[in-house]
Structure formats: structure tokens, C-alpha cells
UniProtKB/TrEMBL annotation, chain A:
<feature type="domain" description="TATA box binding protein associated factor (TAF) histone-like fold">
    <location>
        <begin position="10"/>
        <end position="73"/>
    </location>
</feature>
<feature type="region of interest" description="Disordered">
    <location>
        <begin position="444"/>
        <end position="507"/>
    </location>
</feature>
<protein>
    <submittedName>
        <fullName>TAF6-like RNA polymerase II, p300/CBP-associated factor (PCAF)-associated factor</fullName>
    </submittedName>
</protein>
<comment type="similarity">
    <text>Belongs to the TAF6 family.</text>
</comment>
<dbReference type="GO" id="GO:0046982">
    <property type="term" value="F:protein heterodimerization activity"/>
</dbReference>
<feature type="compositionally biased region" description="Polar residues">
    <location>
        <begin position="474"/>
        <end position="484"/>
    </location>
</feature>
<keyword id="KW-0539">Nucleus</keyword>
<dbReference type="InterPro" id="IPR011442">
    <property type="entry name" value="TAF6_C"/>
</dbReference>
<dbReference type="GO" id="GO:0046695">
    <property type="term" value="C:SLIK (SAGA-like) complex"/>
</dbReference>
<dbReference type="GO" id="GO:0051123">
    <property type="term" value="P:RNA polymerase II preinitiation complex assembly"/>
</dbReference>
<dbReference type="InterPro" id="IPR009072">
    <property type="entry name" value="Histone-fold"/>
</dbReference>
<keyword id="KW-0805">Transcription regulation</keyword>
<dbReference type="GO" id="GO:0000124">
    <property type="term" value="C:SAGA complex"/>
</dbReference>
<keyword id="KW-0804">Transcription</keyword>
<dbReference type="InterPro" id="IPR046344">
    <property type="entry name" value="TAF6_C_sf"/>
</dbReference>
<dbReference type="Pfam" id="PF02969">
    <property type="entry name" value="TAF"/>
</dbReference>
<dbReference type="GO" id="GO:0003713">
    <property type="term" value="F:transcription coactivator activity"/>
</dbReference>
Length: 591, 751
């Protein structure tokens, strides 16, 4: 048996043969056993080779017991019975005896016969047709991004995948696609969180999947989800979060897919310019643009604004009862646009100011009123502080926010035209926004960015620009929801307010001043409370927000509450506020 | 030969005379004896292989006499008579020679002694078994001859030299070949593999087990990677007893390994061997190899690699010289009421005028007789029925709406997924008009689905049929039983997995071939089995209807393909010559030829009329599992387990293209209706589209390449690949282009 080692295939050893023979009551000599062993091996190999033929013709990759039995049968050898089951047979070993065997448990026939749950049998074989590829162009997405990927996974990864899908989707295996769960905000939220964790996992190379991720995220941002019909469903949060995620994906993985940025912009633009789409879709588009950075806003939203404004205006000006819901949505959109536009202005101003730093101090006459007001406002009081932070290079948007001092510069720079146009739309609310924006910028944005810091970004001074873009969305998004709440807030006296600024330039000066004090201080606080709620509610990963949420109140905790009492106008908040005084759900519900 | 159709005269014994270069002293009696004996069932059956030699060379006469002697000994006087008559031997020729052929006779006797042991052990050794049942020779004789065959073949190994010297011989030759000029080296290297195998087998046969193992260990690594599969089988073979009944071995022995070598290289080799007195190797070369010598430049390594890989080496050049009528038959002229729906809306009078020019334009194409087409009645074809004519008209109409495909205009793909196919889907076919789909399953069932809203209905029972008014216009509708309407029907009858399935062109019949050795014909009107064609006694891997109906071909594990007619229970032709299982069979569009792909990694083209093998294509490196003729009949595409598609020019008998891209066995191939696109479906869950036009256009088939058969393939698979379409987890086992060029694919979802 010395030559046995040279062989490259499995063998039945002499000892086994002798054991078998003993079992049958025959004593075998050494040479006989050796000959037999060799012959058995050869026959086994032969049978295996011919059985593989049956496998090939059955168009399978897996050799089954059935194939082997067929080969045996054609060789006039008795087939082996009892191993026809499809599932793999566990092969066990007993260490002490060096014994290997296939486990073969006793079957209790009585139990089986008397069993009450009779197996249903398998479903009927059927043929289903689907158009896989039209004109040779494949629509790869509908095939399901995840399942195709699953095929190529190794066992470990497969297990991991199953765990994850179960954790995310619950026990229902059909929820593979975002679309199938559009009725369930919880699911969507969970999916979005999953996407986020995917994106943040530094060990995953997403490669081509970025595209599909983006498309699902975009879906959450833009689609008029079934859940949006019910005003009680908080789909706005989902959209905000998705937008946030989108920007995140884009800035971290955008390089993996060429042309992604452009594609996203295009699709957002399409939605925005489509008047048939519901307002929530528009909202999503605006939020998405905002999340992608001020340049996106400038490129897409700004040129569309004039056209879009008319539609929105119509909605907002309709005070019929049936329109209430739509109008509320309209306000949301209005607020989102406002925030976006404001940031655009600020960023633009900033970019200009950075080039021409020295021009600060030149006050444009047109906004003097607002400016002067601003200076006095408490929110603005610590302008130097953010500046120092900016110097640390934590996030350049801080400079914007903190740039209580910078804010003046946007006017002298060449964007007056833009401002004028925007101003013609938003009137003083723009100015207000502006000031508040800076106001809360002083304290609020910095915290998220810090959070971002601690999370993962090493914000080197070099990556300053990047962080600007990445982090701002965090804050911006947080602000968005309160913003819309904020804008309607101007409603109570509003019909006149909003109508007026646009129609008559004169009224501007009157109203803004009148309303300045309160909005400007309060909204920031609100935004944070709500932000905290959103985060704290579901996602543990967002803890930092809550902690930060705790820090903010000192600055502005009191004003909001007081302000809340003034709110009834917008949303009959009175009761909810009392019920959840601390949680501040109130603002969302009435809308 | 009762089974032969009127038009096909009794095929005489094939006279495929080998023109061996006798100047080199080729041809050894001993080997020839073995060869002929091995093919003896065929030779007495008169339909058999192309390899049998009934020529009147003295050697052949001797072997014939040996056969006669044997038959006589076994008291098969009838066979003796017939064989003698057919071979044209004088009546008394047997007696004086009786003693001479005693050697062969005793060999036969020994074989019979072996019979009991051999039958059980040589499980797969049947060459034809009772395959000759349909032919003239009595079955008894065939079975009896089966055994001697083996021992005689093996006895060719009995001459032996010193076993320890084998290594030296081989190494010597290797050293020599490695030192020759580069241009010769590639050619001479071809000798390695067959030499290696034969030397190894000789060692094993002579019971030098340890030497054999050592020899194998030492040199098996040198062989080309595409022989790996065979080497693995070989490595398991270490005992003389095992050689008997080993399929691969028999394949190797019963045929000479064919090499194509340029004259210069051959002279070089010959001189070397003679100088060295290396008789061992020289003997093997003479006995077991067939060296096809050509004049001219030696071939390059890549050229050789492209063509080699089959079990028996390359095809001899002569084998591919026969003229093949690959053109299409003239379409029968049908009164074409080319009334499109929109035309119908127009006034009635305008019609006849419109009809004429259109008809001409359609007819003109077919009127021009293709010079390469066989004569219309070369083989008798069934007459067109009225329903066939209607179908042709439908076809023409559809064809006018056909999409022209091309690289810029790829077809849409529809996938028919078989769900819950736990039984194991093994074969799929679609009717030409894409209205029915049938699946063959591993649980022996055949299932038919209607893929149009039209349900499947059975004909009423006989009693009910009597009640029908037979004169009514809609009698065809009335005979159907509405109660039986359903989307699918299951047909039971086979007792093993159904491996091949094929619809008749008129959609009235369905053929299925199974592991149980039968081919069954099912009626799609009653959904019952009409005939079970028995003849293959081993699994039948594939079957296909002729494009004109009536005939069908089947091929299986017994290495022969059979041509049948639906109304004959015995085969009309038996195509034997493959050295291993026939895995797939396809009819040429003109129905005059049949292509078979085999596990011996060759493709053969057979003439239906004569039963001759007219083309042998080698080049695949694995068993061939799919074949497809181009619609114009000029080209053949083949796909194999090696994941490559090879394209063949039938007229010239040349390989003209290689399409690489699939990563697993290609189970289906199909040309688009106009032949612009070749679709291939594979086990790797993809459908790939290839630019067939470009592949065939770029050909440069000048006379030289045609004459020498040296192809030079450019590696342009990537340019020709137009698209890759993946399924989730469904191997693609069937492809079909609808009449409008929509691509349909089918497979079972494999969770």
C-alpha cells in the first residue's frame, strides 16, 4: 500500500474491505483484500464517471444520488435505496472509533401516519413569462439588486445577508424591494437606515451598487408614497432623512459612479418641473437639492423658481377647506425652498467673501433695516465665537452660520440680482430667514458637525470644502421641518403678509419689523427640539443628537415654549402641546 | 430493409476506402483485424458505420473471411450467405482459408468464454448491442461478436518490450521533439498524447502495474490541459482486468488517433525513430496512429490547438471532402392570399393586382435554384397538407412583420421560467409559431403548456365523435372537447428522465426521448402516446423532428444516431461512427443531413440519403451539448461544456469562428430567423448574443485554406459579443426566435 499516497483520488482501504468481509462472516487474506479494495475503487470511479453523464444531461450542476443509482442500474448493479432525498445528508464521525457514517435516524411511522398536519405537497409546476430585456437593453434594476448579488456570496456572507434581511425586513421574505413597502413608513425608515449603515461600513466596497442604492434613496425622496395620503404619517421626516442620506452617499461614494451627480440633478429637476407631481414630491426634490449643496440649488432650483412659484402661490392662496391639506403641504415646500434658497445665498456670499475678504463692513442700503435689527438680536450676539471655530476648520459652513459678520457681504457681491429676485418671491420672510439662519447657525450647526467629526470624518483643513458640503446637510435637514413650521407661523397675520410683500414692495419694511423679534429667536430652538425627537425616536445611532439637543435648550429653550403658545394659529397646537409638552410632536401633527 | 423509404435505395455496404500512405508501410494486419471485427455488427447490417471496409484489398478480404468463418462456426449460415453475396466472394472461398483465419476464430472463442464475466463487468462496453436489431444481421450474431471484439482489440497490446525502457523511449522522443526547430515542434508535439496513452495502456495490459504508474506520474503532466478529463479516467485504470469493458479505452482502441502533420515534420520524426531503432514507438505509431500527411508549411501551435481536443484526434482531410448540398430546398409554391388586415379593408378589386407582384417577389427568391441545394426529391418528403399550407401562409405574414436584427437592433428577450419544477426540468421545446411550450422532466413526465390564451383541448371520445356532423365546416372545432380545456397537460409514459423533446412542425405531435431507451411519439390532439420507438437500448439523449416532419433523428448512449420515420417502428438509418455518446442531434434545414454532437468532442454530419458521414468537425474540448444550423444552411454552430461556441462552414468543412465568453456548458444555441444574430444560452445563467453576420462575413475562405483545412482564427469574440443578459438563477436550457424575431428563452428557476 506504499503507492497509495501517490494516488490523487479517494480510496477504499484494505482494512475497510476486510472489516466488511468480517461483517459478512468471511475471512480475507491480505492480498485478496488489497485486490478487492482496488477493484472496488475502480468500479466506484467508473460509476461516478458515468453518473456524471446523467447529471450533465439533466442540466444540473449537482450530482445526485439518483444519478449515481442510474449509473449503477445501467451497470447491472443494484441501486442503493433510501438516499433519494434532495437535501444533503449529514456525514458524521465518531472520533473514538475513527468511524464515519451517515446519520440515519429512526422514523416513527406511527407518528407519521397519525400526524394531523398533512403536508400540502409542492406547488404546481408552471411556466411564467417575463420580458427580461427590451430591445436588447436590460432593465437590470427590476431583477432586484440584492437577490442577484446574493448568488455570488460566499457561505459566510450569505448567512450574514440572511441575518440582515431578516433583521430589516422581518420574517417576510418578499420585501426585497423598496417599492413593495411603500405603504409602510416604518419599513422604509428601516431600509433607509440600512442603506446608511451600508454606506458607512468602511469594509464594504459598494461599487456598482451605489447606483441602485441611490435609486432606492431617490425613491424615498421623490415618490408620492402611499403613506403620504394620510396626513398623520410623518413621511416628511423620511424624505429629509433620505435626502440627507443621498448627499452622504454622494459625497462619500459619488466617485464610484460617473455621472451620478448629473443624473441625480436631472431626475430632481424633472420632478420639480412636473406640475402634476404632488407637493410632497416637490418637497422631496427641493430637500434633495438642498442636501446636494448650494451649487445644486443654484443650478436647478433657482432657475425653476419663477415658474414653480406660480403654482405654489396658487396652492398657498387657496383658503378653501378642501385645500387645507394641500396647503399645508404647500407650506412645507415653501419652507424647504426658503431654506434652500437662503443657504444658496449665504454660500454664494461666502464663496465670494472668501475671495474678497476685505470688503466686509460695506452694508447695502437695501437691507439695512433687517441688518440693524439683526445686530441686536440675541441669536447674533456671539459672532466672533463661530469664527474661531471656523478657524479650527471644523466645518466651513460654520463660518456661514457663525458669520453673523459675513452675512452683510452677500449683498455687496455680485449676487444682488439673485437676491433681488428671491426677495421678490419671499419678501421679508427671506430676510427673516436669513437672519434667523445666521442666528441659529451660531450654536446649532456646530454641534452636528462636531458630531459628524466624532463619527468618522477626519476633517483635515484640506477637506474643508468637503465637510462643508457634507455636514451642512445635517443641519439643513434638521432645520427643514421646523422651517416649514416656521413659515406658516407667519400665517396668522399672514394673508396680508405674504401677499403683500410680493405685490407691493413698500409693505416689506413694515411687516418684517413687526414680526422680527419672535421668529428670529424661536425657530432655531424649535428646529432642534424636533431634530432631537426625530433622531431619538428610532435610531440609536443618532444618540449624539439627543445629547446635543440637551445642550441647545439653554440658549433657546424658553422662547420656543412661549412661542408655542402663540402658535395656535398655524395648527391648533394648543392641546397637543399640553399633552406632549416635552416631545414637541405637536408641530407636526396638526399639519 | 423493409423500413427504407421508396426513395432511399438500399444502401450498399459503405465503401469508404482508406487511402493510407502505404509507401510508409502503414497498416498492420493485426490492428486491422481488430478494427474490422469491432465493427462487424455494422458490416453485416449494411447500414452501419462509415469505417468498415468492404473493399477488395487483400487484407480486407482476409478479415471478411475471418468473419465468415466465425459466423459459420456459430451456425449462422444465413448470415454467411448474405455477407458472402454482398462482399462478392466466391462460394468456396471459405474452405481453403479456414485454417488461416483460425487465429481470429480462436480469439472469438476466447471472447465467448469471457462472456459471462465480461457481460457483468463490462457494463458500458456494448458497441452496438442489439442495435442491429433493425438491420439484417440476427441479433444473436451481434451479441456474440461483441465480446470477441474486446479481447481481440486488447490483444493488439500483447507484443511487449522491456517495460522499464518505456520511460526511456518516451523521454528520448520528448527530448528530440523539444530540440527540433520551432516550426516542427508544435506539430510533432501532437504525437505525445496518443503515444503516452498507448504506452501506458500497453504497460497496464502486460501487468506492469508499478511501471505503468510511474510512467503516468512522470509524463501525465506534460499533456495538453484539454485531455485532462481523459487522463483522469486513465489514471484510475491500473489493472488488465479493468481494461476490458472500459469505454474510453475501447474508444481509443477501436479507432486510430488521427494526426495531421506536414511532410517535413513527419520525415523528421521518422528519421529520428529509425536512427534510434526505437521500434517500440515506431510500432505504436504505425499501429495506432493515423498520420495524415500534408504538403506545405507546418501549422502553428494555435492552429493545432484549435482543431485538436477530440477523443480520436483530428478529422482526416478526406473525411471532409465529400460534397455537401447545404442549400435550402425550394419552397413549395403556395397561393398566397397576401391580404393583410389593412389591405382587407380596402376594396376587393384592388387585391388581385396587388397580389401578383407581391407573390412574385416572394417567389422569385425561391425560384432561383440554389446551386448548392440538393435536388428537391433527393429524399422523399411528405406532401403538404392544407393545414400546412395555412401555416406557411401565416408564417409568410409574420415574416413580413419581422424585425431586422443587427448589432444596433438587438432583440428583446422574453424568459419562460419554469417555477416549482422540483422534478427537474431536463428539456424544453417551443413550437415554431411559439404557441406551445413543452418540458421534459426528470420524473419521466412530459408536460405541455399553451403560452397563448388558447387552451389545450383533447379530442372527444370515440362515442362522442360519432355524434358529430362530419360535413359541417367547423368539424375541426367540433371534435374538440371543451371540458378538457386547460392550460397545461401532463403526459405519462416514460420510465426515466426525459432528456430530449421536439415538436413536429405541424404541432400535432411531440417526440420525447428518455433514459429508458425509448423515443415516444405523443399526439397533441389526444395527449396520449402513439408509438414507443425502441432501438436504442440505452439512454436516448436527444431527438429532433425534421423541419419537414415525418422523419426524426435520435441519438444516445449507444453511440449511434438513428433516423426514423414516424410510421415505421424500426429506424431507417443508423449512423454509427462516434466514439462516445451522442449528446445532441439536429436536422439540417433542408432535411437532407443530420448533425450529431458527441461526448467524443466531435461533431459529425450525416447524409440522410446514404447514411454516410460527410463531415467530422473537431476542435471542441468537451462534450458537445448544443448545435444549431444557420437558417441559410451554410453554417453550423456548436456549443460544448468548454463554454465555447464554435462556428463551422459546412461546405468547406472548416472551422470559421470561435466565440468565447460563457463560463459554463452551453445548452442552447439558436440563430435569429434571418441569421444575423446567434444567441447562446448557458448553465452560467446568461444569454449571450453574437454578431453572426460579422462572424461569417469576415471569412476568407480561399482555396488554400479550404484545401488544407488550416484555419487561422482571429480572436475577436469580444467584438462579436453584442450583449450578455443574465437571469437571476435560471440556467438557460432552450432558446427560440419567434417568427418576428423576438428571442424566447426558457429554463427552470433554481432556488
Amino acid at each position: 500500500m506504499a503507492d497509495r499516497e501517490e494516488r490523487r483520488f479517494a480510496e477504499v482501504s484494505r482494512e475497510s474491505v476486510r472489516l466488511m468481509a468480517e461483517g459478512a462472516g468471511v475471512e480475507l487474506g491480505d492480498d485478496v483484500a488489497a485486490l478487492l479494495a482496488e477493484d472496488v475503487c475502480y468500479r466506484l470511479r467508473e460509476a461516478t464517471q458515468s453518473s456524471s453523464q446523467f447529471m450533465r444531461h439533466a442540466k444540473r450542476r449537482k450530482l445526485t444520488v439518483e444519478d449515481f443509482n442510474r449509473a449503477l442500474r445501467w451497470s447491472n448493479v443494484e441501486a442503493i435505496c433510501g438516499y433519494g432525498a434532495q437535501d444533503a445528508l449529514p456525514f458524521r464521525s465518531v472520533k473514538e472509533g475513527e468511524l464515519f457514517f451517515v446519520e440515519d435516524r429512526d422514523v416513527n411511522l406511527v407518528e407519521l401516519a397519525l400526524a394531523t398536519n398533512i403536508p400540502k405537497g409542492c406547488a404546481e409546476t408552471m411556466v411564467r413569462v417575463n420580458v427580461s430585456y427590451l430591445d436588447g437593453k436590460g432593465n437590470l434594476e427590476p431583477q432586484g439588486t440584492v437577490p442577484t448579488a446574493v448568488q455570488s456570496l460566499s457561505d459566510d456572507l450569505l448567512k450574514y445577508y440572511q441575518q440582515i434581511t431578516r433583521a430589516i425586513l422581518g420574517e417576510d421574505p418578499h420585501l426585497m424591494k423598496v417599492k413593495s413597502v411603500s405603504h409602510d413608513l416604518e419599513q422604509l425608515n428601516r431600509l433607509m437606515h440600512m442603506v446608511k449603515s451600508l454606506v458607512q461600513n468602511p469594509y464594504l466596497y459598494l461599487g456598482s451598487y451605489v447606483r441602485s442604492l441611490v435609486s432606492s434613496v431617490m425613491y424615498c425622496i421623490l415618490e408620492p408614497l402611499a403613506a403620504s395620503i394620510n396626513p398623520l404619517n410623518d413621511h416628511w421626516t423620511l424624505r429629509d432623512y433620505a435626502a440627507l442620506l443621498l448627499s452622504h452617499i454622494f459625497w462619500t461614494h459619488g466617485d464610484l459612479v460617473s455621472g451620478l451627480y448629473h443624473q441625480i440633478l436631472l431626475s430632481l429637476q424633472k420632478v420639480l418641473s412636473d406640475p402634476v407631481r404632488p407637493l410632497c414630491s416637490h418637497y422631496g426634490a427641493v430637500v434633495g437639492l438642498h442636501a446636494l449643496g448650494w451649487k445644486a440649488v443654484e443650478r436647478v432650483l433657482f432657475p425653476h423658481l419663477p415658474a414653480y412659484w406660480a403654482n405654489l402661490q396658487a396652492v398657498l392662496d387657496d383658503y378653501s377647506v378642501s385645500n387645507a391639506q394641500v396647503k399645508a403641504d404647500g407650506h412645507k415646500v415653501y419652507g424647504a425652498i426658503l431654506v434652500a434658497v437662503e443657504r444658496l445665498l449665504k454660500m454664494k456670499a461666502l464663496s465670494l467673501s472668501q475671495s474678497a475678504e476685505g470688503q466686509s463692513g460695506a452694508h447695502p442700503g437695501s437691507v439695512v433695516g433687517a441688518v440693524s435689527y439683526r445686530v441686536n438680536s440675541p441669536g447674533l450676539s456671539p459672532p466672533p465665537e463661530p469664527l474661531s471655530e471656523a478657524a479650527l476648520g471644523i466645518a466651513s459652513h460654520l463660518q456661514v452660520g457663525g458669520a453673523g459678520c459675513h452675512w452683510e457681504e452677500w449683498t455687496p457681491v455680485p449676487l444682488p440680482a439673485m437676491y433681488c429676485e428671491l426677495y421678490s418671491f419671499f419678501g421679508d420672510s427671506l430676510a427673516v430667514r436669513f437672519s434667523t439662519g445666521t442666528g441659529f447657525g451660531t450654536h446649532s450647526p456646530c454641534t452636528p458637525s462636531q458630531l459628524g467629526d466624532s463619527r468618522k470624518e477626519p476633517p483635515g483643513p484640506a477637506s474643508n470644502l468637503d465637510t462643508t458640503r457634507k455636514m451642512p446637510q445635517l443641519t439643513a435637514n434638521l432645520n427643514i421641518s421646523p422651517r416649514q413650521d416656521g413659515s406658516p407661523r407667519t400665517d396668522p397675520p399672514p394673508p396680508t403678509t405674504r401677499g403683500a410683500p410680493r405685490s407691493a414692495g413698500l409693505s416689506r419694511e413694515v411687516f418684517p419689523k413687526a414680526r422680527f423679534t419672535s421668529p428670529q429667536t424661536t425657530p432655531p430652538a424649535f428646529s432642534f427640539l424636533i431634530g432631537g425627537r426625530q433622531m431619538g425616536q428610532r435610531c440609536q445611532g443618532r444618540r449624539p443628537f439627543q445629547t446635543m439637543f440637551a445642550t441647545t435648550p439653554p440658549v433657546s429653550a424658553i422662547p420656543p415654549r412661549t412661542y408655542a403658545h402663540k402658535l395656535p394659529v398655524i395648527g391648533r397646537v394648543g392641546k397637543p402641546v399640553r399633552r406632549w409638552t416635552c416631545s414637541h410632536y405637536s408641530l407636526h401633527l396638526p399639519l | 430493409m423493409a423500413a427504407v423509404q421508396g426513395g432511399m435505395g438500399d444502401a450498399d455496404i459503405k465503401t469508404d476506402i482508406k487511402t493510407e500512405p502505404s509507401a510508409d508501410g502503414f497498416g498492420n494486419n493485426n490492428a486491422n483485424d481488430g478494427r474490422v471485427l469491432s465493427a462487424s455488427p455494422g458490416s453485416s447490417s449494411s447500414t452501419g458505420s462509415n469505417k468498415q471496409t468492404a473493399a477488395v484489398t487483400p487484407e480486407d478480404q482476409q478479415t471478411l473471411l475471418a468473419v465468415l468463418q466465425f459466423l459459420k462456426k456459430n451456425k449462422l449460415s444465413e448470415s454467411v450467405e448474405i455477407l458472402r453475396r454482398e462482399a462478392g466472394l466466391p462460394e468456396n472461398s471459405l474452405d481453403p482459408k479456414a485454417n488461416e483465419s483460425a487465429g481470429a476464430g480462436s480469439g472469438g472463442a476466447a471472447g465467448i468464454v469471457d462472456l459471462e464475466g465480461g457481460d457483468a463487468s463490462s457494463l458500458l462496453s456494448r458497441v452496438t448491442g442489439s442495435s442491429s436489431a433493425g438491420a439484417q444481421a440476427p441479433t444473436k450474431a451481434a451479441v456474440a461478436e461483441d465480446q470477441p471484439d474486446v479481447s481481440v482489440v486488447l490483444s493488439a497490446y500483447s507484443q511487449q518490450g522491456d517495460p522499464t525502457l518505456y520511460k526511456v523511449y518516451y523521454r528520448d522522443l520528448k527530448k528530440f521533439i523539444e530540440t527540433v526547430l520551432d516550426c516542427h515542434r508544435a506539430e510533432l508535439s501532437q504525437v505525445f498524447y496518443p503515444l503516452f496513452v498507448h504506452m501506458y495502456l500497453e504497460l497496464v495490459y502486460n501487468n506492469h502495474e508499478s511501471e505503468a504508474k510511474a510512467f503516468f506520474e512522470k509524463f501525465s503532466g506534460d499533456q495538453e490541459c484539454y485531455y485532462e478529463e481523459d487522463l483522469r479516467i486513465l489514471s484510475g485504470l491500473t489493472k488488465k482486468e479493468h481494461m476490458r469493458g472500459n469505454e474510453t479505452l475501447l474508444d481509443f482502441r477501436t479507432s486510430k488517433f488521427v494526426l495531421r502533420i506536414s511532410r517535413d515534420s513527419y520525415q523528421l520524426l521518422k528519421r529520428h525513430l529509425q536512427e534510434r531503432q526505437n521500434n517500440q514507438i515506431w510500432n505504436i505509431i504505425q499501429e495506432h496512429l493515423y498520420i495524415d500527411i500534408f504538403d506545405g508549411m507546418p501549422r502553428s501551435k494555435s492552429q493545432i490547438d484549435a482543431m485538436s481536443g477530440s477523443l480520436a484526434g483530428e478529422a482526416k482531410r478526406e473525411a471532409n471532402k465529400t460534397k455537401v448540398y447545404y442549400g435550402l430546398l425550394k419552397e413549395p409554391e403556395i397561393e398566397l392570399p397576401l391580404d393583410d388586415e389593412d389591405e382587407e379593408a380596402e376594396n376587393e378589386e384592388g387585391k388581385p393586382k396587388k397580389k401578383k407582384p407581391k407573390k412574385d417577389s416572394v417567389g422569385s427568391k425561391s425560384k432561383k435554384q440554389d446551386p448548392n441545394a440538393p435536388s428537391q426529391n433527393r429524399i422523399p418528403l411528405p406532401e403538404l397538407k392544407d393545414s400546412d399550407k395555412l401555416d406557411k401562409i401565416m408564417y409568410m405574414k409574420e415574416a413580413t412583420k419581422r424585425i431586422r436584427l443587427g448589432p444596433d437592433n438587438l432583440p428583446s428577450v422574453c424568459f419562460y421560467t419554469f417555477l416549482n419544477a422540483y422534478q427537474g426540468l431536463t428539456a424544453v421545446d417551443l413550437t415554431d409559431d411559439s404557441s406551445l411550450i413543452a418540458g421534459g422532466f426528470a420524473d419521466s413526465t412530459v408536460r405541455v403548456w399553451s403560452v397563448t390564451p388558447k387552451k389545450l383541448r383533447k379530442v372527444k371520445s370515440a362515442a362522442d365523435l360519432n355524434l358529430i356532423d362530419k360535413e359541417s365546416d367547423d368539424v375541426l372545432e367540433r371534435i374538440m372537447d371543451e371540458k378538457t380545456a386547460s392550460e397545461s397537460k401532463i403526459m405519462y409514459g416514460h420510465s426515466g428522465p426525459v432528456y430530449g423533446i421536439s415538436f413536429s412542425p405541424d404541432r400535432n405531435y411531440l417526440l420525447s426521448s428518455s433514459e429508458d431507451g425509448t423515443v415516444r411519439l405523443w399526439s397533441l390532439l389526444t395527449f396520449t402516446c402513439l408509438v414507443a420507438y425502441k432501438g436504442h437500448n440505452y439512454p436516448v439523449w436527444d431527438t429532433q423532428f425534421s423541419p419537414y416532419g415525418y422523419y426524426f433523428v435520435s441519438g444516445g448512449h449507444d453511440r449511434v444516431a438513428r433516423l426514423w420515420a414516424t410510421d415505421h417502428y424500426q429506424p431507417l438509418r443508423i449512423f454509427s461512427g462516434h466514439l462516445a455518446d451522442i449528446t445532441c442531434t439536429r436536422f439540417h434545414p433542408n432535411s437532407n443531413y443530420v448533425a450529431t454532437g458527441s461526448s467524443d468532442r466531435t461533431i459529425r454530419l450525416w447524409d440522410v440519403l446514404s447514411g454516410n458521414c460527410v463531415r467530422i468537425f473537431t476542435g471542441h474540448k468537451g462534450p458537445i451539448h448544443s448545435l444549431a444550423f444557420s437558417p441559410n444552411g451554410k453554417f453550423l454552430a456548436s456549443g460544448a461544456t468548454d463554454g465555447r461556441v464554435l462556428l463551422w462552414d459546412i461546405g468547406h468543412g472548416l472551422m470559421v469562428g470561435e466565440l468565447k465568453g460563457h463560463t459554463d456548458t452551453i445548452y442552447s444555441l439558436r440563430f435569429s430567423r434571418d441569421g444575423e444574430i446567434l444567441a447562446s444560452g448557458s448553465m452560467d445563467n446568461t444569454v449571450r448574443l453574437w454578431d453572426a453576420m460579422k462572424a461569417f462575413d469576415d471569412l476568407e475562405t480561399d482555396d488554400f485554406t479550404a484545401a488544407t483545412g488550416h484555419i487561422h482564427l482571429q480572436d475577436n469574440s469580444q467584438e462579436l459579443l453584442l450583449g450578455t443578459y443574465t437571469t437571476k438563477s435560471t440556467p438557460v436550457i432552450h432558446l427560440h426566435f419567434t417568427r418576428r424575431n423576438l428571442l424566447l428563452a426558457a429554463g427552470a428557476f433554481n432556488p
